[in-house]
Specification:
By secondary structure, the chain is of the alpha+beta class. It folds into two domains: about 5-70, Sandwich (Immunoglobulin-like); about 75-125. The protein is built from three helices and eight strands; from the N terminus they run ββββββαααββ. It has helices at about 80-90, 95-105, 110-125; strands at about 5, 15-20, 25-30, 35, 45-55, 60-70, 140, 160-164. A four-stranded antiparallel beta sheet has the order 3-2-5-6, with no helix packed on it. Strands 1-4 form a two-stranded antiparallel sheet. Strands 7-8 form a two-stranded antiparallel ribbon. It is elongated.
């Protein structure tokens, strides 16, 4: 994910910097260095406008807009990215494999070979995402199925609930 460092000079004491993608506020930072991460897979390939807005303690503000071009290689197709992901898996490059699997799924939603690349990469990293249990007044038991972001079934929280 690209990081977008932001320098703010000449305004006075900065209290907050906001980061917008299009017109949507995505993040705000109140301490230096002002940095924002942009997951380009969450946006469509092509032109993208990002804006930074800085605010000072004495009420001044300024904005700076940039036009970026996003190209995740989605047009190369899901099969291409699955092959890349499998090569990354062979070389234990887990994060690269995860990225390749995500791009493949963006190119072809629900593509099982891409899900397999993701599952194998998350297993290689030993990363399991678990969701917190929230069952007040009930005894809860999470399913034993592991959950990995982006690969489907595990993205949904599953739990068995029994009333006390």
């Amino acid at each position: 994910m690209p990081r977008l460092p932001t320098n703010v000079d000449g305004l006075g004491i900065i209290t907050q910097v906001e980061f917008y993608v299009g017109s949507d506020l995505r993040d705000a930072d109140t301490s230096t260095p002002y940095e924002f991460k942009l997951d380009t897979l969450e946006v469509e390939d092509g032109e993208l406008k990002v804006t930074f807005a800085a605010y000072t303690s004495d009420g001044k503000s300024t904005k700076k807009a940039l036009s970026l071009t996003v190209d995740n290689g989605v047009s190369k197709g899901a099969e291409f990215h699955v092959q890349q992901g499998e090569e990354f898996l062979r070389n234990s490059k887990w994060d690269d494999a995860i990225n390749a699997g995500r791009v493949a799924l963006k190119a072809k939603k629900g593509f099982n070979p891409a899900r397999m690349v993701l599952a194998r990469a998350y297993m290689g990293k030993n990363v399991f995402r678990s969701r917190p249990k929230v069952c007040r007044g009930y005894r809860c038991r999470r399913s034993q199925e592991p959950s990995w972001p982006g690969i489907g079934r595990g993205d949904q929280a599953t739990a068995s609930v029994q009333h006390r």
